Amino acid sequence: MLPKSYDGQDCSLARALEVVGERWTLLVLRDAFYGIRHFSDFQTHLGAPRAVLSERLRTLVEHGLLTRRPDPGQPSRPVYALTDKGRALWPALHALRSWGEQHAPAPGGPRRVFVHDSCGGELDATSVCGTCRQQVGPEQVLASPGPGLNPGLGQDAVSTALTRPHRLGQPLTVLAAAPHPTRPRPTTQADVRPTPPEAIGPHRLTRVP
Ligand SMILES: [Zn+2]
Fold first, then answer.
1. Ligand 1 centroid distance, CA of 139 (Å)
2. How far does residue 118's CA lie from ligand 1's centre (Å)?
């Protein structure tokens, strides 16, 4: 049986993996960059077992990568948000995703592409904009649907919200499905406040499958 920690390893990579090396953890962080903030939305999008997700979120809060605060609109529903320490993982996360695109590609291409908000240039694996050559931080990145995004997969409210281009780190607008086709669900039950259109910068990838 594998040991549960890297106690014998005096290496920064091993210490980083103690925090983010568990299964699901990097995907939780990815979703946090996508603007997912509520437990139920993480669970809907990831499909991770509830106990596992709860443990991963707890670890990330404990290590200061996420904060956990009551939602001002729904105090019983905590909001998880990236801290500066969590946001600092963006280059590593993006580089790992780029590696996956190159060495473990999905059929049909990437599900999502990441572009510089001010010029629309696509980022390379080191988060440098292919158009203006600036190093781009997550707050300047628009995540947009890529050619591999299959609209037939993941038709839940979170996946649907993620088919719209939006800025990383901004709360994702998740509109709950109407309980009845002629009776829309009350807006008070919406999970996340809408992001005003003006908050989304210019971009060239506007195709929404
Ligand atoms: Zn650029």
1. 13
2. 6
